[in-house]
Amino acid sequence: MMNTGPEVAGVPEDIQRLVDEHRAQYARAAEQGAAAERVQQRWAETGGASATSLRGEVTVRVGPAGLLEDVRIQQRGLDLGAAGLSRLLTATLRQALVNLEESAAEDVAEADGGAVGGAMLAEIRTGLAGPLTALRGDESDLREG
Predict the structure, then answer these.
(1) Is 131 exposed, middle or buried, given 0-12, 13-18 or 19+ CB atoms closer than 10 A?
(2) What is the pLDDT of residues 39-73, one digit of tens each?
(3) pTM (2 decimals)?
(4) Alpha-carbon distance 123 to 41, whole Å?
(5) What is d(CA 91, CA 97) in angstroms, rounded to the nearest whole number?
(6) Residue 5: which residues within 8 A CB-CB, separation 6 or more?
């Protein structure tokens, strides 16, 4: 390994090699920390995701953690009745979560998050897996929002 620091007279070569290895480890850790910060910054800028039903009856917004932030229902959504509106809300919420997952993947790529960003994305996907499964259903009346 090449000496990345100043030469120190009288320091045994094996000790200098250990110092160089530690410096390289530190540089890798610093880059991973910077990658995590870039990914978190992108997520903060994106701020979540939304979805709107195909005919605009319902719009749902979720935050960066997948928590429901806003629901907007137009009159034609109310005209669907309780069961129809419930199905449409569920499908629209599911699509907003899918959009969040896709947005997070784009953010990792744009932030050049590397392995750290990939691990953060895996954690988000794991957190969204349960809600996405629970909300599985017909999304034929949806458009991305």
Answers:
(1) middle
(2) 778 777 778 899 999 999 999 999 988 899 999 99
(3) 0.69
(4) 17
(5) 10
(6) 16, 19, 20, 23
